[in-house]
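User: I'll paste a sequence; please echo it back and then give the predicted structure.

Assistant: Echoing your sequence first, then the prediction.
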Amino acid sequence: MIYLDHAATTFPKPKEVVEAVSECLSVWGGNPGRGSHRLSLEAAERIYAAREEAAAFFDCPDPLRVVFTPGATYSINLALKGLLNYGDHLLCSNLEHNAVLRPLERLRKEGRITYGVFCAYDPDRPLSAEEICKNIEQKIKRNTRMVICTHASNICSATLPIEAIGSLCRKRGILFCVDAAQSAGRIPLSVTRMKIDALCLPGHKGLLGPAGCGALILGKGILPKPLVEGGSGYRSLLPDMPVELPERCEAGTLPVPAIAGLCAGLEVVKRIGVEAIEKKETELTEALKARLVQVPGLKLYAPEQKGGVLLFSSDQRPATEIGEELNARGFCVRTGFHCAALAHKTLRTPQGGAVRVSPGYGNTIEEISSLADAIEEILHA
C-alpha cells in the first residue's frame, strides 16, 4: 500500500515511537502519582520530561501549562467549555472542522453562547492577512470573549495568519484558541510569539505519536474549568479538582504509553526539522497538482494554496468511487466530507464530497507519480 492519508493520522510511525511505547509497556510504565514505588515515580518523571519537550517545541515558558488530553478534539472541548461563560459570544472561521463546530453548536443550542463565522478563505479570490483580520474585527461584539480557528485546513492547503489574528485578539482583550490538528509538527508554532491562549494538539498526526494522546497548551493566566472530574494523584483530600495545572484538567490515569510515544515523536520531528517536513510535503502536493491540473473533468480546490493537502473532485466519477478504485490499486486516500462540512461548503465541493490526498515526509515523488497515473486511468477508463 502507498499511504497518502497523513492528514488523518501519520503512518507508519517512526521506529523510535514504536520502541518508546514498547519500553513503557514493558519496562517503566507505572501509574504516575499513584504509587510510592520506583515505577510510579519514574513514570511521573517521564511524563514531566514529555511536558518539557512539548513546552519547548511550542515555545511555552511553563511545562506545567501543558495539559495532556486524549486528543485535539478533547482539547478543543476543554478550552471551549472550560473558558466560556453564559452569554459569551465567539467567532470561528469558515474553514472549521467539526471538532470546533459541533461543540459550538451544542453550547449555542443550550443557550450558553452565541457565535459568528468570519471569512478566512474565499474561493473566488485570495485574502490577505489584513483582510482576514478586518473580517474578524467587523464581527466582534461587546461580549465577544474568544476567537477560535484552525491553523491549517484539513481539506486543502489553506493556512490562517495565526500571528496576526493573535495580535488582534490580544489588542482587543479576546481569548485566542487555535486548532493545530493539521499544523503541529508541519508548520512552526509559537504560543508566545503568536499570542495563543489555548493551543489544541493531536499527538498522532504531524507529531508522529500514537493515537490516544494530545495536548492543550495554555497561555499565562489561562485556567479553564475541568471538563471531567476524578482522581489526579494530587491533593486527594480535596472534594474538588485541584486549582493547579496540569492536574486540574487531567482527571484519571493518563495514557502513559501514548505520552511516551508522543515524546519520542516530538524528538523525531525536532531532529528532521519542521521546515524540512513542510518543504517536502509541499513539494509532493505541488508535483501532484501539476499532473492533475491537466486531467479533463477534474477540479482542484484551493489550487493557489501551497501545503501538504490536496483536494479534488471529478465530474465523471463520484469521490467515493474514485477512492474505492484507488484502494483497489493500493493507494490510501480519504473521500467524502472529512468531518468538515463547513469547510466543504466554503470550498463549494459537490454533493458527494471530494478526494483528499495528504502525503507525508516519508512519501516519494515516484509514489506521487504513480498516484497521478492511477487517477488518470480511473477517470478515463
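The first strand starts at residue 2 and ends at 3. The two ends are 22 Å apart (CA to CA).
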